[in-house]
Write a structure and sequence with these properties.
Blueprint lengths: L1 E6 L2 H7 L2 H12 L4 H8 L3 H13 L3 E9 L2 E8 L1 E6 L7 H14 L11 H16 L4 H8 L6 H15 L2 H37 L1
Parallel strand pairs: 1-4
Antiparallel strand pairs: 2-3
Length: 208
């Protein structure tokens, strides 16, 4: 099992949008398990688990770890193909999936005291910005080299990826990167300001 893996395949994004498949990957990151063991853990039928496993194998999220003979049967143990998956949006990512994940992220801000309100149009624009920011300075050979680094943990690999992008992108790319980051920040700040403005308007009307 690799420590780190970059996911770019759109079908992998779609598969991981399903909660059951995310739970399967979570289990298989910890240890190798059979279909029956996974089914028992998730209170689902082996047939349902096998259906998920087959799709995740095709998307290279899950692989066969080992096989054991038990009496006259062969037990297949599966494992995740990496301990940590990094999702790079890329051109092929489903727009609907990306927008849902972005909307979920914005909604979760309220849990840390940063409530925002975003229209579908704003969410779509944020997805477009995120995709472009991922693409600027992205070089597949560098990403694969970083993913293959040994004795380097996930957080350090994130730093290496960030530094490598900044070091290798052109001045034109860097100027675009800064412009898009500013736009993203302005959009997010505007989402925070709307509730405050609405509240102020209500107070003003009440005092009139």
């Amino acid at each position: 099992m690799k420590a780190f893996k970059v996911i770019r395949k759109p079908e992998a994004f779609q598969l991981l949008a399903d909660e059951t498949r995310r739970r399967i990957v979570y289990l298989l990151r910890a240890k190798e398990m059979t279909v029956s063991q996974i089914a028992a853990e998730l209170s689902l039928t082996p047939q349902a688990i096998y259906h998920h496993i087959r799709k995740m194998r095709d998307a290279d999220l899950v692989e066969v770890g080992r096989e054991e003979r038990v009496d006259h049967f062969i037990e297949t143990y599966y494992r995740a193909t990496a301990e940590i998956f990094h999702m790079a949006w890329g051109e092929g990512t489903s727009q609907a999936f990306a927008e849902q994940k972005t909307a979920d992220g914005l909604k979760a801000l309220s849990k840390i005291g940063l409530s925002v309100q975003a229209s579908p149009e704003v969410v779509s624009r944020l997805v477009t910005l995120t995709k472009r920011l991922e693409q600027i300075g992205e070089k597949e050979e560098l990403s694969e080299a970083i993913a293959g680094l040994e004795d380097v943990d996930f957080l350090t690999k994130q730093d290496v990826s960030h530094f490598a992008k900044l070091l290798t992108m052109s001045d034109e790319d860097f100027a675009e990167y800064l412009r898009l980051v500013r736009e993203e920040r302005e959009i997010l700040r505007s989402l925070l300001e709307k509730p405050a403005k609405a509240k102020a308007a209500v107070v003003a009307r009440g005092g009139a």
